[in-house]
Amino acid sequence: MLRSLSGRFLILTAIFVILAELLILVPSVARYREDYLLSRLERAQIASLALLADDMIGPDLETELLRNAGVYNVVLRRDEARQLVLSSEVPGPVAATYDLRDPAAVELIRDSIRQLFQPENRVIRVIGNPVREAGLVIEVTMSTGPLRTAMIENAGSIFLLSAIFSVVTALLLFFAVRGVILKPIKGVIGHMQTYAQDPEDARRIIEPSASVRDLREAEVALHDLQTQLTAALRQKDRLAQLGSAVAKISHDLRNILTSAQLFSDRLEGSDDPTVKRLAPKVVASVARAVNLCEATLAFGRAEEPAPRLTQVALIELVGDVIDSERLAVGDYDISFAEDIPATLRLRADPEQLFRVIFNLVRNARQAIEISGAAGEISVAAEESDCDWLIRVCDTGPGLPPKARENLFTPFQGGARKGGTGLGLVISAELVRGHGGQIELERTDADGTVFLVRLPKEITHLGIADR
């Protein structure tokens, strides 16, 4: 109960109502004390006027008048003369004097609080204005015991009424809020739980029905979210099925094309002029089809495993990449250069980093081959306080606009005819696995520069390591 929203709301409502009633209680007790003292002054004035009207009143009657007034003696000031009208034995010295002729509210509250927390019976003097202008000032002495008792009884009555009022108010608010707010909220929660059991079932999507504007807005937002999520899940399922089918087709098609590639290689040895002229185009077309199948299968595999980080000598790794690409250059006039400090070692997965640099260098080589002009590919590396930076530069014709707009989009970011663009996508995924990123630093008619940024700082379970 206490951990539920409704239970806490009930308790907080009761507390706030009680606090509000306490703010009313203190001034009420102060006002009651003032009225009590003023009533004693009025009774004392009536008793003194009875004595002034008949000087023959005996001691017994005088005592009776003082007892009825609840005071020990009465002093009445008339015509600038101070006169002790009624008197009796005072049980002790006067402990305090209170002037009620023009009291401040703060003073009355302060005196009433002090009175409540002083249990001993004391004698006090009270000064006030006589009613109906029956003199200038009236003074009485009285004990505080009956006053404190009356104040406690009055405070208890007010507090009891406040407690009853607080409980009733809290219950009414509790049931009102529970019906108007909490019940619809629980309904929304129930819809969410039901939807979570089968998100692809459109019948489980919530239908907004709340009459409260804020709750209805929440239901509408949840309805839109569930609708979009259901559609996305269905689309994802269809894409997964399509991807599985494409992977199977690509696998079988690759095997078929590999056989066709072997046959097409023999066509180049034919003496027929037409066959000699068309054979290179057939071989190139089959090779592109094989590459497309292999790239599709690679991209369709499960997510790349987490990199196994070790210290890598970058100059050796880049040397392996360049040696491999030199063999693939063939008759094209392409040169390679590297500017890597011999002592530079970085933290990376050597196999994955090789694939990243290989893809970038291969793309650069293919771009220069397409241009038909001579070119150069260079790989440079440096380090800062936070990162290792690897740049792959080429002097090719630059990336076309479509490739720049879809640089890391599968099957759309290819820079050459027949390209898939999957090399950059896979490379970017591998670099992200290292906590870094690949950036297109520059591309224009003078060439293209890709920047690979690998962070030196790696976080394990929230602890930064170097």
Helices and strands in order, then pairings?
Blueprint: H1 5-53, H2 59-69, E1 73-78, E2 81-86, E3 94-99, H3 105-116, E4 123-128, E5 137-143, H4 145-197, H5 213-267, H6 273-300, E6 310-313, H7 314-329, E7 334-339, E8 345-348, H8 350-371, E9 375-383, E10 387-394, H9 401-405, H10 422-433, E11 437-444, E12 447-455, E13 458-460, E14 463-465
Parallel strand pairs: 3-4, 7-9
Antiparallel strand pairs: 1-2, 1-5, 4-5, 6-8, 9-10, 10-12, 11-12, 13-14
Helix pairs in contact: 1-2, 1-3, 1-4, 5-6, 7-8, 8-10
Organism: Pseudooceanicola algae
EC number: 2.7.13.3
Keywords: Kinase, Phosphoprotein, Transferase, Two-component regulatory system
Can you give a write-up of this model?
The protein has 466 residues and is α+β, with helices and mostly antiparallel strands. 56% of the residues lie in helices and 18% in strands. It folds into 3 domains: 5-169, no CATH class; 213-298, Helix Hairpins, CATH 1.10.287; 306-465, Histidine kinase-like ATPase, C-terminal domain (Heat Shock Protein 90, 2-Layer Sandwich). The chain has 10 helices and 14 strands. Strands 2-1-5-4-3 form a 5-stranded mixed sheet. A 5-stranded mixed sheet has the order 7-9-10-12-11, with helices on one face. Strand 4 (123-128) and strand 5 (137-143) form a beta hairpin. The chain is elongated. The two termini are 50 Å apart.
> Can you tell me the overall shape?
elongated
Q: What's the story with the biggest beta sheet?
A: 5 strands, mixed
**Biggest sheet, spatial arrangement of strands:** 2-1-5-4-3
How large is the share of residues in beta strands?
15-25%
Order of helices and strands: HHEEEHEEHHHEHEEHEEHHEEEE
Catalytic activity: ATP + protein L-histidine = ADP + protein N-phospho-L-histidine
Protein name: histidine kinase
Organism: Pseudooceanicola algae
EC number: 2.7.13.3
